[in-house]
Each structure stands twice: as structure tokens, then as C-alpha cells.
Amino acid sequence: MAFSELKILVVDDNDNMRRLMTTILRGVGADEVRDVSSANEALEILRSPEGWRPDVMLVDYVMDGLDGVQLTRRIREEYDRPGDRLPIIIITGYSELWRLNEAKAAGADDFIVKPFTTPSLLDRISRVVAEARRDRPEMLSA
Q1: 53 lies in a domain?
Q2: Residue 83: what pLDDT?
């Protein structure tokens, strides 16, 4: 997967975690990485008239205001279009099975528990983007 071709949105209320993920992603060539500190800021980007739509979102599970599960539900209900599902990976420091099940039920494509390794993060991103593109044949050449 060529990370240089991806638009990635990082949503986390922890400044250090946002910086870490952004640094990792830019380090592997992802130039179009945006990061925000809240679910509301993420929704503003998705609503933006400029039309920037990420290829994948990395979303913290626990945040003030809307949490990652609530954000995922909103995106599935309001922003996904037929044949155009936005891949979402929930990232959390909690590993309880009920949390994983809650994230999956909300529509998350994957779930990563902190601390994570760089290879595991990149592998998850590659996998969910590849699955989304497989479901959209016009994206296979992207």
C-alpha cells in the first residue's frame, strides 16, 4: 500500500497520541494527514464544502463530548454513501471484549489497543483500506 496516496484523519483528544500517529504516518510517506482533537472537529471536516474526505479515520475510543463509538455511529448514519463506506479504526487503551463488540456494532472496521506497534498500525490501515477499495472497483487503481 502506498501511504503517499492516502488521506488520513486522526481523531484523538490526547495531543501526544495525535502527534505520535501523525509522525508515524508522515514517516511512511502519508502527506495528507489531518488531526483533530474532537469528534465535532472531525464532523466539521466531513461536512466541509471543500470536499476533503479521508480514505481512513483513526478514532480514539474515549474522548470528551462524542466518543469514538458515537462518532462512528454518526458517520455510518449520516456520511457514508451507498457503495462508499469510510473505513474507521478505533484506537483505545481499553481491551475489554465488550468495548470491541460495541465498536464493531457501531460500524468500526477494526480496533487497535494501545500501546500498539508501528507495523501493527500500518497493517491495520492497509487492510481496512484494501477491503474498502475491494468493495469499490473504481478505487482499485487508486
Answers
A1: yes
A2: 79
